[in-house]
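Researcher: We're reviewing a set of sequences before deciding which ones to prioritize for further study. For each one, I'd like a predicted 3D structure that I can look through quickly. This is L-fucose/L-arabinose isomerase family protein. If possible, include the structure in token form so it fits the rest of the review sheet.
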Amino acid sequence: MTVPTAQPSPNPAVRGRAPRIGLLGIMQPLYDDMIPGITEHQARYAARVADRLSGVAEWTVAPPVRGREEAERAVRAFEEAGLDGVLVVMLTYGPSLRITRALTGARLPLALANIQPEPSVSASWDMDDMTYNQGIHGAQDTANALVRARVPFEVVTGDWEGPEFAERVGRWARAARAVRALRDLRVGVFGYPMNGMGDARVDETSLLRVIGPEVHVIAPGALHRTMAGLPEEPVRELMSWEDSVFDVDPRLSKEEREDHARMQLGIERLLEEAGCGAYSTHFDAIGEDGRFARLPMAAASTLMAKGYGFAGEGDVLAASVVYAGHRLAGDGHFTEMYAMDFPSDSVLMSHMGEGNWRLAREDEPVRLIKRPLGIGGLADPPTLLFRYRPGPATLASLVALGGDRFRLVVAEGEVLDSPALPSLEMPYGRFRPDSGVGGCMDAWLRAGGTHHMAMNTGRRAEDWRVLCALAGIEYVPV
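Model: Here's the predicted structure for L-fucose/L-arabinose isomerase family protein, in token form for your review sheet.
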């Protein structure tokens, strides 16, 4: 299922673009007289490393750095180029004090690749070989400086030509991309958050300062005016696209579908104008406004499928983590735990009617249905109905602990191939945690995990751990 070109372009923050990483090779001029040409020799080594890792990121390789000014100039160039992170590679031993200012002042996520040109020590080695392969103590010196400066960073030790090293660097690069995206994120909130819901509340200043998302309030009136001002052509195109992708309920009237289409297009236009990569709506804010006929349920599902972060009830934390899930794994999905099913050791996952249909089962159509909904006090909202695709999955909940402390609670498990629930008219699936329902729920509640969360397909706990390490977020697997 793909979005045709007639539709607005997918959110550029999510799909298609590989992480863009700068490789900063460190050495020093001490060895120039001892080994003429060593700088050029090790520059070729750095280029080979980048070429080997070309499958996990796009690389910008700086000339070998041998002093403080060169290091600071290279890092500034990476930042000005809009890269996602910096991989530091010791080309020889490089004293940390020559690069400490550059790295501790860097605005980009960092990783230290503890590698060397040759994977094994050979009896044929001479002093040249020893010098080429002595990066480990430069890595120790540099890591010590970063720890003392309290700068978050990841470490990847291994044979740079092996698949495990590429996999780990790829994981870090995706996490760096997600962290960078969060630092630039603006979350649009339509109206106001749900009254009385405490686990979604956050000090917006702390969220902006520590992780990066900025909250941008959008008045419901702006949405109403935007909907009314839309021309007919994009509305028809959206409805035609839905006809080609979804199994459309014949009970849906043209009026209902046009109103829903205008709401979706209006939301997206306002998000684009405000530079928002994520958003949240609250049913009361829409329902009590008095100018809307229905809630934007199907709109949330398709906008998530296009790469926008989303959460219900004005939940900025959950919208941010869904957005990060897009950048980390490509398929962020908003959900919550509805009920426990002890016989299957699983939890029924769903929400009022929003869900990323890219997570739908492939053996069943995604249905656009006419669906009665009492919440909000409005007319029936067109809703996308599907069951989650069976297989490995990961849940992640962003928790505000007060002050500048944030925690990510993460659970790995499996979406079960469970029987359908014919009366449930919203996206759903059953998630079995690896730690079991009892163990997972006990640990989730002790950690303060929220009731809104992101889901990704696959086992993504390690991806989230790396993101937390780079972003200064406490990581709690349950």
